[in-house]
Design a protein that fits this description.
alpha+beta; 36 strands; globular
């Protein structure tokens, strides 16, 4: 019953900051706003019982992420809650969630939006909202999709409108090459065929259509996407693929290589919707299994989005992929569905997700996994989701707050990953007194290092008693202590250690002269994860 969270996905520069408060009763409330570990604003007032709004001006608040802590006092008891908020949209991060329930009977849309705001989601994928994959807009308000799911277009529109009020963007799901059997029967010349001349289908329901330049299907589906933006009110389209086929034949036996056709499809979609709707659409393209991300990230997409499946099973696979995707100069999103929430114990599932979310964030990326109301994805069909327990969601939210609080560091593309070149062996730049890894090996502490000019960020992930499989449940790691030695050019102007569990603390250090130069020594206490930040004097 006690809570605090932002009323918008992000606040414009110089606008008021509005926070939602939820209190069991009237009480004195102290609010502290932090930039990293420094308090930048403080307030004390009487908050009313129930739901209320607290606003303050953003004067002197620069662009970036902020942490907020609320202390609710009642009699002799103090209840502390935390959240975070964003001032000014960071173009290098897109926090993506999902929604998949659009029945006419829905009455909890406000609760769903609250959940997105608590998790700092700023864009929503409306999964399977459409009438048909080849005919998106229904002719009646209440309808069933091809999978039999009940939908209501008024509910879709209301959710979009409500999302817009809170600064969230809405993207309508649209498969780029899937049609129903009825459409295919009337347009067999628009289909794709395998090496035996058979029509290619997916789960025996959808026919895979030819998205090549000049093909009638391409023109058809782009017009459908445009109608979704114009008539349903979406900000853009989530352009889905299934990962297969990668090449096929058209009706006349001509080879079609999809990786060379997808980029032009995206660009043509962007151009057509912009012209027809008078606004640039948000476009997110699903690179299933990270294919063909090298080609599509050069096109008019607003994020580099990859849905991860085997054989990309290890942390090192994700690390290499995110570094590659960062070259697109756009937000990087990994659709990683933590299966342990349906296959393992609640405790191990949570441990796995906390580690995974930190690994993704320390690479400057975000994860699609949360949506609807207290739900999490564990597999590819979004209505088959899992419900989070309250204590699980509380811990996941703590990590999401952390990623917003430090987004100016975690999502700074000027900081370069030097993990594989600046530590271990004869590299004198970074040394650690504990079994460590530069690439996320199991049984070690993962030391992920990014730096730029006089700034260094060292991320620690405790894998000492766990393996390196990202989609498996994990054991709670034991807290460990070790020392770090960092080669610097000047003494540190700022040095602190931060973690989602213990917040921010200043770090005591010593400087020693060595044959390699000036070395900074400090001691680290590591629970699950932590970030050591060093800023040298300029």
């Amino acid at each position: 019953m006690w809570d605090i969270f932002p009323e918008k996905a992000y606040f414009d520069l110089h606008s008021d900051i509005s926070l939602t408060l939820i209190c069991e009763n009237d009480c004195r409330t102290d609010i502290c706003v932090f930039k990293y570990g420094d308090i930048v604003r403080k307030f004390s007032f009487i908050a009313s019982a129930g739901r209320s709004s607290f606003s303050f001006d953003a004067e002197k608040l620069e662009r970036g992420g902020y942490f907020v802590q609320a202390s609710f006092f009642r009699k002799k008891q103090e209840t502390v809650r935390q959240s975070a908020f964003v001032v000014g949209k960071n173009d290098m991060v897109m926090r993506y969630g999902f929604s998949c329930e659009f029945t006419a009977e829905r009455e909890n849309i406000s609760e769903e939006i609250d959940g997105f705001l608590r998790m700092h989601i700023d864009a929503i994928q409306f999964y399977d909202w459409a009438f048909r994959h080849d005919d998106l807009i229904p002719t009646s308000d209440i309808y069933s999709d091809l999978m039999g799911k009940q939908n209501c277009l008024s509910t879709v529109s209301f959710l979009i409108t409500h999302a817009h009020r809170h600064g969230l963007k809405s993207l309508g799901y649209g498969a780029v090459y899937a049609s129903g059997s009825q459409y295919f029967s009337a347009h067999e010349d628009e289909g794709l065929y395998d090496g035996l001349g058979r029509p290619i289908t997916f789960i025996d329901i959808f026919h895979i259509m030819n998205i090549s330049r000049g093909c009638t299907w391409r023109n058809h589906i782009i017009k459908e996407f445009s109608k979704a933006v114009a008539e349903a009110g979406f900000d853009g389209i989530h352009m889905d693929t299934y990962g297969w086929p990668k090449s096929a034949f058209d009706k006349w036996g001509k080879r079609v290589n999809l990786e060379t056709e997808f980029p032009s499809l995206i660009d043509e979609c962007h151009e057509f919707i912009s012209m027809e709707c008078g606004k640039e659409p948000l476009l997110v393209f699903n690179n299933v299994g990270a294919w063909p991300v090298e080609e599509t990230m050069k096109s008019y997409t607003d994020a580099v989005y990859c849905e991860i499946w085997p054989p990309m099973t290890r942390y090192s696979h994700l690390s290499c992929l995110m570094n590659k995707c960062s070259h697109g100069g756009k937000p990087v999103i990994l659709a990683c569905y933590p299966q342990a929430f349906r296959t393992d114990s609640p405790e191990r599932a949570l441990e796995g997700e906390l580690l995974l979310s930190f690994v993704i964030a320390m690479h400057g990326a975000s994860q699609l996994f949360y949506g609807s109301i207290h739900r999490i994805l564990t597999q590819g069909y979004y209505p088959d989701n899992s419900i989070l327990e309250e204590w699980q969601e509380r811990e996941i939210r703590r990590y999401q707050d952390f990623f917003v609080r430090f987004q100016d560091i975690m999502y700074d593309r000027n900081m370069t990953d030097v993990s594989l070149t600046h530590q271990d062996w004869d590299n004198p730049e970074y040394k650690f007194s504990i079994p460590s890894s530069a690439s996320g090996e199991g049984g070690k502490v993962w030391c992920h290092i990014r730096e730029s000019m006089n700034r260094k960020a060292i991320y620690f992930v405790n894998l000492l008693n766990n393996d390196d499989l990202w989609n498996e449940g994990k054991s709670r790691p034991d807290c460990v202590s070790f020392s770090a030695a960092v080669l610097v050019l000047k003494k540190a102007e700022r040095i602190w250690l931060a973690s989602p569990e213990s917040g921010v603390s200043n770090v005591n250090y010593t400087l020693k002269e060595t044959d390699k130069g000036l070395v900074l020594h400090c001691d680290i206490s590591l629970d699950r994860v932590a970030m050591l930040y060093i800023e040298e004097e300029k």
